Each structure stands twice: as C-alpha cells, then as structure tokens.
Amino acid sequence: MKVQRKSKKDEMLEIINEKSVSELESFSIRPSLRENVEIIKHLFQDCSDFVVREFQLKNSVHGCAIFVDGLIDTKQVNEALESLMIEKGGADDVQVIESEILPVSQITQVTNYKDLLMAVLSGDTGILIEGNSIALTLGIRGAEKRSVNEPEGESVVRGPREGFIENIRTNTSLLRRRLKTPRLKMKSVVVGKQTNTNIVVAFMDGIVDPEVRDEVLARIEKINIDAVLESGYIEEMIQDNTYSPFPQVQYSERPDTVAAALLEGRVAVFVDGTPMVLIVPTTFWMMMQANEDYYERFQMATLIRWLRYLFLVVSLLTPAGYVAVTTFHPEMLPTTLLLSIAAAREAIPFPAVVEALIMEISFEALREAGIRLPKTVGQAVSILGALVVGQAAVQAGIVSAPMVIVVSITGIASFTVPHFNASIALRMLRFPLMFAASFLGIYGILIGIVLIMGHMANLRSFGVPYLSPLAPMSVGDFKDVLIRTPWPHLKQRPGFMGTQDVKRMDTLSVDQSKKEH
After folding, report:
1. pTM of the entire structure?
2. How confident is the model at residue 516, as a pLDDT?
3. What are the tens digits of pLDDT across the range 316-345?
C-alpha cells in the first residue's frame, strides 16, 4: 500500500491550525507572498468576515491587505491602498512604504504570525509585500461602538456624567483626559487563548507601591483560560480569597472614580469589551464610600457616610434581630409593642424564622425579576409584586404585617450601600444570621458577628488588610473613613496603601493662600 507523505508546507499548516493565535510567535512571516497568503487563507477558511485583498504595486510587485470586515475604517483603508497602488507605488520595501508612502499615523512592523494576526483580529489592517519578511499593521480601526453616556449603576447629583463603554481605548482616553501626566502608565496584557482579550493595567508611577503593581501584573499574566468575556473573569482570578462573600476588588464605570483611586496609589485594570474597570487593592471602608462624597460639602458627606453605616447594620441584622427578639427575648420589647406584634402574629401558622425566610426569598425573587425583565415592565412588576404579594400574604395569614415592615426596611437599607457587590455580601450573610438567631437568639447573632468580623480581619486585598485602617489601627487615616475631612486637611494619601509619595498637597500652600487674601 502506497503511503502519501505530507509536504513540509502541509505539515506546517497542520501545526499552525492546531495552535491558537497567541501561540504562533515562533512562526515567522515568509518572504514569499504566495506562501503567506496560503497560510492565512488556510487559517481563516470559512471565515466570511475575514478579507484577503491582493493588489499590485506600480512596479508590478504584488502585495496583500488583510483585515476583518466591520472592525476597520473602510474609508481610511481605501486611502492607504490607494497610496500604495497609485500615488507612490514604486517602492517595494516595507521600511520605505512605512516612512514615505502610507499616510497612517499608527504603523507597526511585525515579524511573526502572532503579532500580525492578533493586531488584525483586534481591528488593525495587515499589509504584506512580496519579498519582505516584515509585515505592517495599520491602526485604522472603525468598529461600531456605544457613545459615552452617564453610567446607570453609579448616578450622581453632582459630578461628571461620563461613563466607560465597551471599547478599551475609549476608556483609557477618558482616564487620560483626567490625568494629563506622563506618570500615568498603562501596561497591556493579552489574556484568553480564544478571545485574546486586551487588558490594560493602569497605575501612577511614583505613587503606587511597586510590590502591589508587580503583584497585579503577575497574577494577570498567570491567568491561563480560553476566554475572558467580562471583567468578572479577571476579578475572580486575581482576588485573594475566592470563597469569601466580601468583594476584594472594587469596580466602577466612572473615569473620575478610577482617577481618584490611582491618585491614592491603587491599580486599575481595564478589560476590553466591558465598561467595568477593576480597582485594587480594596478595603471594606472603600466599599462604603461614593465619589460624590468628595464633591459635596464635607458636613453633608459625613452625615451621608454615617447614614450608610447605620443602614449597613440595619440591612444585615434587622431580620435576624426580629427573629431573635420575638422568639427568645420578648421581654426586650416595650409592652405595647409586644402586644401589637403578638396580636399580628396570632393567626400566623409559622415560626418567625419561616416567616422571615418566606418574605426575604420573595423579596430577592422580585428584585431579580425586576432586573431581568425589560425596563418598561420591570419597575412596574417590582412595585406591584411587592405591594400585591405583601398585602395578599398578610390577609391570607401567611406572614404578619410587622414582618413585611422589617423586610421592606431591610431591602431599602441594602440600597444605601454605594457598591452593588458589597450589598450582595450583606444580602447573603443575612440568611445564616437569621438561622443563628432562630437557634440561639441574640447569642446566635453575636456569635455570627464575631465570626464575620474574624473572617474580615483575616482578609487581604493584594497585601492590604481588608479592615484597614481600623485593623490594624491607623489613626491618621480615620479622617477619610468615619468622617470626610475637608479637602484642605486631606493633605496626605492613605498611609496603609504603602504609597511612594504620601503627600497629596503642600502643607503650607492652602494656609499661605488664605493669609495672603
């Protein structure tokens, strides 16, 4: 039986076909244009959006442009090809073409298939010329993108109305517009074997702790996954404790929030395809702060901050406290209130903990349904559902009216937490605390609080204790935790961040300015 041997070219094509684009670094671009075109067509066979446009230069030298339809600016690509073929098409060396012919501001020389195809799949246009083992990538992208709007999840009364979008270069430009300094550094990383998602790690050189910066970059570079479709993938991969309910990575859609975080010595992680920018390290108290705290007068910002702390406790403990008091410690209530609650619960067939579970689960279901439904009906379903179901449950004798009030207050309180991922932790921890209260009363709640505080004290976010500056104690940093100190007195950056440059403003500058006037 005659065995057909594969040619060297076929073997190479087979090897290339089995690898992902990010693994093609060892495959150099060939001087032969025909060979390059065969390889590219083989890789992208059955890809109707991938265009291979062959052309001829003025001196009969052949060339080829490759791009993805829909990701490029067609008008600019046509102008570039026109320059090559008609106006000054006499050159056949890529060095001359780059420096003298192509009217494109962003041109990069690449020597291997990884760099060429990664650029083209990201929206660049590749140019291959016969006899050259160097290809050019033209940065003339033109994919459709959403306009910059106010982020719906982080609305403010006072402050900028711009929010990040899904395009990573638009997002980095929004940040650059606020930090007009060469000390703002942005390092690019590509993650995802199949998605080749562009990630940019931004930090302020001279301010950020180098160990934190290097740790963030090292954790991202170690990620070996086939796809990154949202920043949540990166968040779970780089956070210190995966199983903790508390978020150790903050995210934001606001450029001003990210800029302020970088100026405190933190690191931002942009992920292409999502408007959510990750910010690390993160402490618990940062999750209770909003960007608007620093735009309003400090007295009001301090009051709002204390209101959030109060409703944080209400959100976490109110259902458990109600279960504990009505089940084990009724003597703690005033007699009139106790009689009122007892009268309301007289016809209820379930213990208080079952009542609480029924209402809490119903409330979570209504909230989830309100988010998933179309906006036009989602809000109506949430409000009508809460009113109708709550009223019907009370009239049917399934739950008592005081329990409906408790769950309603708890739900409202959870919305006062500025960051959604922080309020999720409170919603989840509410349930084990209710179970603890149903078994041990107030003692069960205290045991639960001690366990939660112990867990938080053990948490770290890129080396920074999660409860900083409370534990370990750093008295100087309390001026931006318990209160929002006026700007003239916020002269130093947070000490627990380990920043290289701790000074935010000159000590005498404000005082001197006031004396001069």
Report:
1. 0.86
2. 60
3. 999 999 999 999 998 888 889 888 888 888
Return d(Cα 312, Cα 285) in angstroms, integer.
12
Torsion of the alpha carbons at 104, 110, 116 and 119, rounded to the nearest 10: -50
Largest CA distance in the chain: 101
Distance set, CA 405 to CA 20, 33, 195, 297, 318 (Å): 57, 75, 48, 33, 10
Amino acid identity for residue 96 in this structure: V
- The token pair at 355 is 């009542």
Rounded Cα–Cα distance for residues 307 and 333 (Å): 24
- List Cβ neighbours of 60 (8 Å cut-off, separation of 6 or more): none
Closest CA to 278 of 291, 261, 295, 292: 261
Residue 194 amino acid letter? Q
- Distance between CA atoms of residues 427 and 425, nearest Å: 5
Could you give the 3-state DSSP secondary structure of residue 323? helix
Token pair in block for residue 428:
């989840």
Q: Under DSSP, is residue 301 helix (H, G, I), strand (E, B) or coil?
A: helix
Say how far apart CA 391 and CA 396 lie, in whole Å: 9
CA 422 to chain centre: 14
Q: Cα(448)–Cα(221) distance, rounded to whole angstroms?
A: 38
Residue 250 φ/ψ, nearest 5 degrees? -90, 150
State in Å, rounded, how far the first CA of the chain is from the last one: 101
Say if residue 330 is preceded by a cis peptide, omega within 30 of 0.
Answer: no
**Rounded distance, CA 410 to CA 428, Å?**
13
CA atoms within 13 A on the CB side of 416: 19
